[in-house]
């Protein structure tokens, strides 16, 4: 088995292909002046994390401006960092599975655990995998969500989507879609193939996953980016979607669309987002204060209800406040107090952390995904 975290900065970048297109990436980078460092916080993040519903109170409290460069995936994130001058970013929002790669590439600083409210967190999230190296902390989990089967409730009965086998149903031919990222899709279909550890599979099981996935290709009506996933579910072009969860269907529900995400009997995946302080950050103290802000109960409620895409939150005090100020949203997302909630799904083993492949290279999974799309 290869150790996927023992990587030099350059070898990792070459291995994942993020050095490609360097000129294009460099042209997209934000610029900042030295005198502005104490008056602004620059974040590299998924879309939505620097919008007014999230940052306005922080900006007002500290008299600063939060600016962001938004990325569209982990490889894009790494490429943007690799092509940016030192000090371009203060905070890096990372999907949890990329934190060890950020650490290996020396892109992030070690954090002091005492600075953050881990005592507020559910025990499962206090020492989150990949965020620590022994007792040394490198990233703080702020939000998470589950990936299962997203479907149109007017066109597909819930009984049909209790298993990933629904994707092969004749009635859905040409109506199944993929969110165009290999990690969530192949992880889900690895679960369906019978792998209890969907990302830690040997060569034989990897071959079986590829065979099963290829058999799905005639059912597929499209591969969609963020915006395309929204529109194809909303307009009925796609009836069932693989690779996403409530982070998209929750936004559509707010707009009245008849969509929902369910965790099928084979289980689901957990996506997780965390903040790291960038190496050579111009405003490291401000970055620390922002993590403290977003992990406070008030910040956690903002994160749970983020307009761009909702999420579950790891803070028990955040849950309590959400149930107080917006009980309907707490119920919709399953963050209920004193009754069955999403933590039961985790504790019962129905949810598996999304991660990078363990026994294959990330590029091998990516190459297969490209082959599958072109088949």
From TrEMBL:
Region forming the signal peptide: 1-36
Keyword Signal: yes
UniProt keyword annotation of Transcription present: no
Subcellular compartments: Periplasm
Keywords: Periplasm, Signal, Transport
Entry GO terms, CC: periplasmic space
GO molecular-function terms, A-Z: polyamine binding
GO biological process, one term: polyamine transport
InterPro entries: SBP, Sperm_putr-bd, TAT_signal
Highest taxon of the lineage: Bacteria
The name this protein goes by in its record: Spermidine/putrescine-binding periplasmic protein
Phylogenetic classification of the source organism: Bacteria, Pseudomonadati, Pseudomonadota, Gammaproteobacteria, Pseudomonadales
């Amino acid at each position: 088995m290869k150790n996927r975290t023992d990587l030099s900065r350059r070898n990792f970048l070459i291995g994942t292909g993020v050095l490609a297109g360097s000129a294009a990436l460099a042209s997209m980078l934000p610029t900042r002046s030295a005198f502005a460092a104490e008056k602004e916080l620059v974040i590299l993040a998924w879309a939505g994390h620097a919008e007014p519903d999230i940052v306005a109170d922080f900006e007002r409290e500290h008299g600063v401006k939060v600016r962001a460069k938004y990325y569209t995936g982990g490889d894009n994130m790494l490429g943007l960092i690799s092509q940016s001058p030192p000090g371009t970013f203060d905070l890096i929002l990372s999907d949890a599975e990329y934190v060890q790669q950020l650490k290996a590439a020396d892109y992030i600083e070690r954090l002091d655990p005492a600075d953050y409210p881990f005592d507020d967190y559910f025990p499962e999230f206090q020492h989150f995998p990949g965020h620590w190296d022994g007792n040394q902390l490198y990233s703080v989990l702020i939000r998470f969500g589950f990936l299962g089967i997203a479907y149109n409730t007017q066109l597909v009965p819930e009984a049909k989507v209790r298993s990933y086998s629904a994707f092969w149903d004749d009635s859905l031919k040409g109506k199944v879609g993929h969110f165009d990222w290999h990690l969530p899709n192949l992880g889900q279909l690895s679960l369906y193939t019978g792998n209890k550890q969907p990302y830690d599979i040997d060569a034989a099981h990897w071959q079986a996953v590829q065979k099963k996935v290829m058999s799905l290709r005639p059912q597929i009506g499209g591969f969609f980016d963020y915006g395309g996933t929204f529109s194809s579910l909303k307009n009925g072009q796609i009836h069932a979607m693989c690779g996403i969860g409530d982070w998209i269907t929750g936004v559509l529900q707010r707009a009245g669309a008849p969509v929902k995400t369910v965790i099928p009997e084979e289980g689901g995946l957990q996506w997780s987002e965390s903040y790291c302080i960038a190496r050579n950050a111009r405003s490291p103290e401000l970055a620390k204060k922002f993590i403290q802000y977003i992990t406070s109960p008030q910040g956690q409620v903002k994160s749970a209800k983020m307009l761009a895409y909702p999420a579950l939150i790891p803070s028990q005090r955040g849950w309590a406040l959400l149930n107080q100020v917006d009980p309907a949203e707490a119920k919709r997302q399953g963050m209920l107090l004193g009754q069955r909630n999403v933590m039961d799904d985790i504790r019962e083993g129905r949810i598996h952390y999304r991660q990078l492949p363990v026994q294959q290279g990330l590029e091998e999974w990516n190459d297969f995904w490209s082959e599958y799309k072109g088949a």
